[in-house]
From TrEMBL:
Organism superkingdom: Bacteria
Basic and acidic residues bias spans: 97-107
UniProt region (Disordered), positions on chain: 97-117
Protein's name according to its UniProt entry: PilZ domain-containing protein
Amino acid sequence: MDSFLPEHVRAGLEAARKKDQRRRSRMRVEADGRSFRILRFQEDGFTLDIEDAPHLRGLVDLYDGPRHLSQCLIVASGEEVGEMRYEFKWSTRAGDRPALDFERPDDAPDGYLPDLR
């Protein structure tokens, strides 16, 4: 059906589709102090708008709104229709507390109450 539409109409439809994807997506990637909105996210990678995205490579941080999800090592894998695809070489979930340097027993108390004598 798109082959029967004039070029300027197809370009307008593509721009509207990208704008809608950007508006719906809360996920973003941060690299080198810059933030980019993720259009599509999969288990093995994500896509960014080709106009906004530089050829990212290396260590980046993934966010869902304000929440830090993971730190990833990425590589650009190719261009798709107006989008740049990036794949994960590895991804590590971001924790909300520091890692323990010892094993915590299952029956350990969650806290201590003060002595109120």
